[in-house]
Specification:
Layout (H helix, E strand, L loop, with lengths): L1 E5 L4 H12 L3 E5 L7 H10 L3 E3 L6 H5 L6 E4 L6 H6 L1 H22 L2 E7 L5 H8 L26 H20 L3 E6 L1 E3 L11 H10 L4 E4 L8 E6 H13 L7 E5 L6 E3 H12 L5 E4 L9 E2 L4 H7 L7 H14 L1 H4 L4
Parallel strand pairs: 1-2, 1-4, 2-3, 4-5, 5-6, 6-10, 7-9, 8-12, 9-13
Antiparallel strand pairs: 9-11
Helix pairs in contact: 1-2, 1-9, 5-7, 8-10, 8-12, 10-12
Bound molecules: nicotinamide-adenine-dinucleotide (NAD).
């Protein structure tokens, strides 16, 4: 089977490309290498003879001319929520018009589509309502989980808007042109090959900061580090997508929420403790009490449907995420240094 992975030199894209190649898929990638770290990932792909088409996903003329693929996995995005507030045009072009270009290509070639969506499609107010506090001073109770049927109405960040719009565009194309798709709405994903930033990929950033003894900040909700997220190990996601591809003819045109769930989550402070244990280093944190309008205090995924459909659940927890990412960072730090 021929597979094209857009954003294929990013964190998710590269892991997926290497994983699918190891399962004997014929994989190519499309990535303009705009993300820091994507050049490092490109070398790993080249070592496995995976080709990357280096151009912009906005460029439909070039996309049209690509060979025909049986499946396109869309992992291309400007995924940082704060960037999406400042650079609206480029975020809409990459995240929404990029998906449109991929859909036009899929329509022409009758390719199947798997789209990597996000938990940020849910409105910020619904997450804030769970905690109802401007300062989170103690541990949040882990009760509510977010699933496919939760409310989608309300501001969610421009990033979240572009991803939800892409989901809807995919459904329209499937309806009008009889395309087959799957959408995975993922919570935080982490693991090796992630070059983290504060507002995207914070888990690998945390581990890197501990390894290199850099100062960090707890930002928002009082600056105490009590915000909670679930974290999915990238290998669990790769295994799920492999299953989805194999069952695509029977199970398609569905949206799934996919995440670490109650099996794998942590507050920022808990993540710090895990990093301290694994790296044996302790670093200084400054408190920044003010909360960005885009920050959320809590997100835990409900995997009920994806588990019922595929028998899949995350096998790895947050400790495994941190220890695997730590090993990758530690063993490659001299090369990785310039990308963080
Ligand atoms: N990492 C997470 O925690 C997470 C969570 C939920 C959903 N997602 C989704 O998964 C997908 C992959 O995320 P990621 O963490 O791998 O992000 P990433 O930034 O590591 O990868 C995205 C890749 O897309 C490329 N790219 C960006 N703009 C481009 C353009 N205009 N043309 C061509 N290439 C371009 C970048 O160079 C980068 O290599 C995204 O769609 C994201 O929304 C990620």
């Amino acid at each position: 089977m021929k597979v094209l992975i857009t954003g294929g030199c990013g964190f998710v894209g590269t892991n997926l490309a290497l994983f699918l190649k190891s399962k004997n898929f014929n994989v190519n990638c499309l990535d303009n290498l705009s993300r820091k770290g994507s050049r490092y990932n490109l070398n790993l792909l080249r070592n496995k003879k995976i080709r990357n088409y280096k151009f912009d996903i906005h460029n439909f003329k070039r996309i049209r001319k690509l060979p025909k693929y049986d499946l396109i996995i869309d992992c291309c995005a400007e995924a940082a929520v704060e960037v999406s507030k400042k650079d609206i045009d480029s975020v809409i072009n990459t995240n929404f018009l990029g998906t449109l270009n991929i859909l036009k290509k899929a329509k022409k070639d009758r390719s199947k589509i798997i789209f990597l969506s996000t938990s940020r499609v849910y409105p910020i107010k619904d997450m804030n309502n769970i905690v109802k506090k401007k300062i989170i001073s103690s541990k949040i109770k882990i009760k509510k989980t977010f699933g496919e049927n939760d409310n989608l109405q309300g501001p969610k960040t421009i990033y979240g808007l572009t991803k939800l719009s892409s989901e809807m565009l995919i459904e329209e194309f499937a309806y009008a042109f009889n395309l087959k798709f799957l959408i995975n709405r993922c919570g935080v994903i982490s693991g090796p090959l992630q070059f983290g930033k504060q507002d995207q990929g914070f888990v690998s950033l945390w581990i890197w900061a501990h390894l290199k003894k850099k100062k960090m900040k707890y930002i928002g909700y009082g600056g105490l580090g009590n915000q909670v997220r679930d974290v999915l190990h990238i290998d669990d996601l790769c295994e799920l997508i492999n299953l989805q591809i194999r069952k695509f003819n029977k199970i398609n045109n569905k949206i799934f929420t996919v995440g670490g769930s109650k099996k794998s989550y942590a507050s920022l402070k808990q993540l710090t403790h895990i990093c301290e244990r694994i790296t044996n280093n302790k670093i200084k944190f400054t408190k920044v009490p003010k909360t960005s309008i885009y920050d959320i205090p809590y997100f835990i995924t409900n995997n009920y449907h994806v588990t019922k459909t595929y028998g899949w659940k995350p096998r790895r927890n947050i400790l495994k995420v941190v220890s695997d990412t730590f090993l990758w960072l530690k063993n490659n730090q001299s090369i990785i240094n310039k990308y963080f």
